[in-house]
Write a structure and sequence with these properties.
3 helices; 4 strands
Length: about 100
Amino acid sequence: SGLGEMVERCCQQAARLAEGLTAAGYEVLNDVQLNQVLVSFGEPEKTRKVIEAVQLDGTCWCGGTVWQGRTAMRISVSSWATSSEDVEDSLQAILRCAASV
């Protein structure tokens, strides 16, 4: 039951990130059913710059990917230690970085 609760929490946290990114006007490319979020910040170069800025910021770590021909930031929520506060801090960091590039 503990493992199931962790998986469910990670999925809910990923959905929260997707919701916040969508509300800010960014395009979530996947149907967030599990713990993965793929988001585009517009042109491929801008998306790559946002990824780099987030990695340099250090609040969270998100990688890049190409999914169905689109450059995207890949967010994976997978740690048992990730709290709701961590998710909100990460969302704000991503939004801050996206606004700055």
